[in-house]
Amino acid sequence: MRPRPRRSPISRMNEPLSSRRITELLQTRRVGHPLILLDSVDSTNRHLRDLARRGAAPGTVVVAEHQTGGLGRRGRTWHSPRSLGLWFSVLLEAEDRQLLSLMAGVAVVLGLRVYPGADLSLRWPNDVYAGSRKIAGILCQTHSVHPAVILGIGVNVNQGPADFDSSLLGKATSLRILKGEPCDRERLLVRFFMEIEAQYDRFLEGDREGMLMQYIRFSDFMDHPVRLRLENKIVTGRVVGLHAKGDLLIESPSGRRERYAEGEIIEVMDVTRG
User: Fold this and answer.
1) Last residue in a domain, options 172, 199, 217
2) What is the CATH number of the domain that holds 207?
3) Within the chain, how many helices (H) and strands (E) appear?
4) Is the pTM of the predicted complex or chain greater than 0.85?
């Protein structure tokens, strides 16, 4: 019997994810055990939160082909077109949400680096950029029943320019746009699981300093003037470092240093503008 030819990412681009193939590729001990693959859901984070209330184990992952109400920060919706990106949530046991959130950003960058050539960087707390355009985002939520954190991760994989909402034009990109060809979503998903588990192992071992140093190496904002959006105002200043817990340290134009545990950097300015 002749072996079946290996199908190219182009032929699989719009096909649903295969739980069987993901399981065959999976090499993690914890992340992705169990794996729950859904066709459509309002939000993978909400679905996993409900499962956690019913006793889901750390390491549980929920993946959806499509989200009707994917969650972004500050109540925003994450655009999640069917079968073009990776939309998933991971349940991990931890009490330090901020550091785990930064850890997840590092894991996503490392996962994306299997496709060389993209100018990848992290923007606090955990948006992933390719050049000046966003390619992935992470929403980290705590769970009240036990010390658990839900990492909601969205990665733009096989979208073309026409697949983005008009509000995202010029602001978002995808691996397909960067590479000029589709990517294998199942292999990439498994790669993310491996990187998340490796970073989580470092977290459990207490390697906080090493994790923060790696995050800083991937960042695009250190020693730059930035605009930080808070709940009810915008702060401008120069980023001078990260606290041991992952909080942002900003020096104001007057020289006063402040620590921020919440918010998001919405603009990184040239040093000459500071």
Assistant:
1) 217
2) 3.30.930.10
3) 7, 12
4) yes
Is 256 found in the same domain as 151? no
State which residues form the domain around 203: 14-217
Q: How is residue 140 written in tokens?
A: 């980290």
Is the CB of residue 227 less than 8 Å from the CB of residue 266? Answer: yes
Number of domains comprising the chain: 2
Structure tokens at 43: 């939000």
Going by pLDDT thresholds of 50, 70 and 90, the confidence category of residue 165 is confident
- Domain co-membership, 85 together with 186: yes
Q: What is the mean pLDDT of the chain?
A: 90
Q: Tell me the pLDDT tens digit for each residue of 57-100.
A: 999 999 999 998 666 555 556 678 899 999 999 999 988 889 99
- Scan for tokens 């993209």, then name that residue: 118
Residue 155 in contact with residue 100, Cβ under 8 Å? no
User: What ranges in 30-118 are assigned the alpha helix state H?
Assistant: 44-53, 97-112
Q: Which residues contact 4 (CB under 8 A, 6 or more apart)?
A: none
- Separation between Cα atoms, residue 177 and residue 100, nearest integer Å: 29
Q: What are the tokens at 267? A: 């603009």
